[in-house]
């Protein structure tokens, strides 16, 4: 009986609690239940830290325990991986997430995560932070595919042409727009020297260029290039005419004879058709139409003779070596000469020759004959009248600094020419000679000479072969052919004897003087003086 009574009491008590619970739920639910966000904060499981007891000793290293369930430092991660590279990769993701998600690298580049950064490892044909730059479309690779000058505009190649040319439909090639555009040779055949000493053999190759007549649209394209290597010159500088100069006696540090001085040898010395300017070949008439001869009347000789060479830059401007203008006897700037174009055989009147007087001589401002007859060895000559251009009288192209320096170093060989001596202290050549010479590495160049080889000079030629420019060639062109157009890359300056073993010809580096030439001649995109063109 007592047991039945106890069960009834318990049942009554439970019924009463249920009724009261329902009342509480209906009237005070807001005080019992909380929001899911608050509940999650209460029920969140914090990372467990080492208690400082024996976990590190009694338990095996666990990446999950060290860094995922707990907070770890880089040293603890390094203990787990036991590899520096894997540790760095893990730590970069652990600290701030994976910076390679989503993948930022383009063109199949591989992304490497870093702390607050990433690195894209690009395929060989691409570059840039995200491998977005196509190297095949850069000026640094094959000149961007441009025939003449290459410039980068918003990471894209932009080609430009020399005056007298226009871009073709492909926006890469340059097409001549004038009958006598610079740097072209239109002859039936041209000759190329075989690079073996003491041989008269040569190979023939055709070189015929068709001309299209387009309207000339000259732009200020040269301003796209950095030519800061040459200091600006005063706007009122008019050259050093009349300046008294002292000869730098004893400047040579060895017993070798330097041949930079103009020729004074009788050109009527015995001529042998097989002789060449120290291993060169006789040029074909009209093959080097920008070749200029600086002519003087010598005592006892009826015909004027060349004493130095030069190059035609435009209808009214000629560039030569500064030392050619020094008159040693009076130690002043000489004025007893004239300019001749279209010359080939100085002993014959061939009908193509044209003579011009000089109205202005501009020697580079930093040229100091007393300090060094060879440093800054460059001068400009302004002609009194425009040149009558023809197939045998045509200017050579002038490229911006970076372009000129690049082709000088990369093109296998360049062409030098002149009427200089056929051998050291030998007779001069009455006919124009030419010679292909390779560029010489600057370290080799400097080691070959006791004279100072400055950054404004470069060497070209052969260490063991008897091929070289020589006395009387000074001031003449060092020309480089790039994709069918000839550009002036140097000026014949000086050397230690001629074709001597272990010695090279030294040339003025024309790329260093582009800014000065453009400033003085006004050739920075347009020609201010133009002449009528005649064929003869």
TrEMBL record:
Domain EGF-like: 96-132
Metal-binding among keywords: yes
A molecular-function term among this protein's GO annotations: serine-type endopeptidase activity
Domain annotation Gla: ranges: 50-96
InterPro entries: Coagulation_fac-like_Gla_dom, EGF, EGF-like_Ca-bd_dom, EGF-type_Asp/Asn_hydroxyl_site, EGF_Ca-bd_CS, GLA-like_dom_SF, GLA_domain, Pept_S1A_FX
Any one GO BP annotation for this protein: blood coagulation
Catalytic reaction equation(s): Selective cleavage of Arg-|-Ile bond in factor X to form factor Xa
Keywords carried by this UniProt record: Blood coagulation, Calcium, Disulfide bond, EGF-like domain, Gamma-carboxyglutamic acid, Glycoprotein, Hemostasis, Hydrolase, Hydroxylation, Magnesium, Metal-binding, Phosphoprotein, Protease, Secreted, Serine protease, Signal, Zymogen
Domain Peptidase S1 stretches: 277-522
Cellular component annotations (GO), alphabetically ordered: extracellular space
Enzyme class label: hydrolase
Compartment(s): Secreted
EC identifiers of the protein: 3.4.21.22
Disulfide bonds: 122-131
Signal peptide extent: 1-21
Record region (Disordered): 232-256
PANTHER family in UniProt: COAGULATION FACTOR (PTHR24278), COAGULATION FACTOR IX (PTHR24278:SF31)
Protein task: Factor IX is a vitamin K-dependent plasma protein that participates in the intrinsic pathway of blood coagulation by converting factor X to its active form in the presence of Ca(2+) ions, phospholipids, and factor VIIIa.
Record protein name field: Coagulation factor IX
């Amino acid at each position: 009986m007592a047991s039945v009574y106890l069960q009834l009491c318990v049942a009554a008590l439970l019924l009463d609690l249920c009724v009261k619970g329902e009342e509480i739920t209906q009237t005070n639910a807001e005080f019992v239940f909380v929001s899911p966000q608050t509940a999650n904060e209460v029920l969140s499981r914090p990372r467990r830290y080492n208690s400082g007891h024996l976990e590190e000793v009694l338990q095996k290293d666990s990446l999950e325990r060290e860094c995922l369930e707990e907070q770890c430092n880089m040293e603890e991660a390094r203990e787990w991986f036991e590899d520096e590279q894997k540790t760095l990769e893990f730590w970069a993701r652990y600290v701030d997430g994976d910076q390679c998600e989503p993948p930022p690298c383009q063109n199949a580049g591989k992304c490497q995560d870093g702390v607050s950064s990433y690195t894209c490892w690009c395929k060989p044909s691409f570059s840039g932070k995200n491998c977005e730059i196509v190297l095949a479309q850069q000026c640094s690779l094959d000149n961007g595919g441009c025939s003449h000058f290459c410039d980068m505009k918003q990471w894209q190649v932009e080609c430009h042409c020399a005056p007298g040319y226009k871009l073709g439909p492909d926006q890469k090639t340059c097409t001549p727009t004038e009958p006598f555009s610079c740097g072209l040779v239109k002859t039936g055949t041209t000759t190329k020297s075989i690079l073996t000493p003491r041989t008269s053999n040569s190979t023939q190759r055709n070189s015929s260029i068709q001309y299209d007549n387009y309207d000339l649209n000259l732009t200020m394209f040269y301003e796209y290039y950095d030519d800061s290597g040459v200091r600006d010159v005063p706007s009122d500088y008019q050259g050093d005419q009349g300046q008294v100069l002292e000869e730098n006696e004893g400047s040579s540090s060895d017993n070798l004879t330097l041949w930079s001085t103009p020729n004074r040898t009788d050109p009527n010395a015995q001529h042998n058709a097989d002789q060449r300017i120290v291993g060169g070949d006789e040029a074909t008439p009209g093959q080097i139409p920008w070749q200029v001869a600086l002519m003087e009347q010598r005592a006892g000789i009826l015909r004027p003779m060349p004493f130095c060479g030069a190059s035609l830059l435009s209808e009214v401007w000629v560039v030569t070596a500064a030392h050619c203008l020094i008159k040693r006897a009076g130690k002043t700037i000489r004025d007893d000469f004239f300019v001749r174009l279209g010359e080939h055989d100085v002993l014959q009147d061939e009908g193509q020759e044209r003579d011009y007087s000089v109205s202005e001589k501009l020697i580079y401002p930093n040229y100091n004959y007393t300090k060094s007859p060879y440093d800054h060895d460059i001068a400009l000559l302004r002609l009194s009248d425009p040149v009558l251009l023809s197939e045998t009288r045509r200017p050579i192209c002038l490229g911006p600094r970076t372009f000129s320096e690049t082709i000088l170093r990369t093109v296998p060989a360049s062409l030098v020419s002149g009427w200089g001596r056929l051998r050291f202290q030998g007779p001069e050549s009455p006919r124009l000679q030419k010679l292909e010479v390779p560029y010489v590495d600057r370290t080799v160049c400097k080691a070959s000479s006791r004279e100072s080889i400055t950054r404004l000079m470069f060497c070209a030629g052969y260490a063991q072969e008897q091929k070289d420019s020589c006395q009387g060639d000074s001031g003449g062109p060092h020309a480089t052919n790039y994709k069918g157009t000839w550009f002036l890359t140097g000026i014949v300056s000086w050397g230690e004897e001629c074709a001597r073993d272990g010695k090279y010809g030294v040339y003025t580096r024309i790329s260093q003087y582009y800014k000065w030439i453009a400033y003085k001649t006004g050739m920075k995109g347009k020609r201010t003086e133009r002449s009528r063109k005649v064929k003869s």
